[in-house]
Amino acid sequence: FINKGLSRPKTEEWRNSYFYSPLNSKRFENLPSTQIIVGEYDPLRDEDIMYYNILKQSNVEVKFLNFSFFF
Predict the structure, then answer these.
(1) With 60 as the cut, is the pLDDT of residue 5 above it?
(2) What's the rounded Cα separation, in Å, for the pair 52 and 34?
(3) Rounded Cα distance, 31 and 9, in Å
(4) Where are the alpha helices (DSSP H) in the chain?
(5) Running DSSP on this structure, what letter comes out for residue 65?
(6) Sign of CA pseudo-dihedral 47, 71, 60, 57
(7) DSSP code, position 22
(8) Which of 5, 44, 66, 70 has the smallest set of CB atoms within 10 Å of its CB?
(9) pLDDT the model gives residue 66
(10) What is the DSSP secondary-structure string of 27-45?
(11) Mind listing the pLDDT tens digit for each residue in 12-66?
(12) Kind and range of the H or E run holding 4
């Protein structure tokens, strides 16, 4: 997914930016309540689970919904 879907320059600086992926952020506290919805076969499911765990560890109110047999 790194080389697909974004029209911005694909520089290393851009890829390491939190604008590119929220997982690149250095701080996660003080974020609003979040709901993450994924399908069992979602290609970004692992990243969604990582983000959920990071938010949970940062004391952000977060709800995770995983739907079986969905993309």
Answers:
(1) no
(2) 9
(3) 28
(4) 12-15, 45-57
(5) E
(6) negative
(7) G
(8) 5
(9) 92
(10) --TTPPPEEEEEETT-TTH
(11) 887 788 887 888 898 999 899 999 999 988 888 999 999 999 999 999 999 999 9
(12) none
C-alpha to C-alpha distance for 71 and 51, rounded to whole angstroms: 18
Strand partners, 38: 66
Sign of torsion, CA 34 2 39 56?
negative
CA–CA–CA angle 30, 66, 56 (5° rounding): 25
What whole-number distance in Å separates Cα of residue 54 and Cα of residue 7?
28
Q: Give the containing element (helix H, strand E) for 67.
A: strand 62-67
Partnered with residue 65 across adjacent β-strands are 37
Q: How many Cβ atoms sit within 10 Å of the Cβ of residue 34?
A: 16
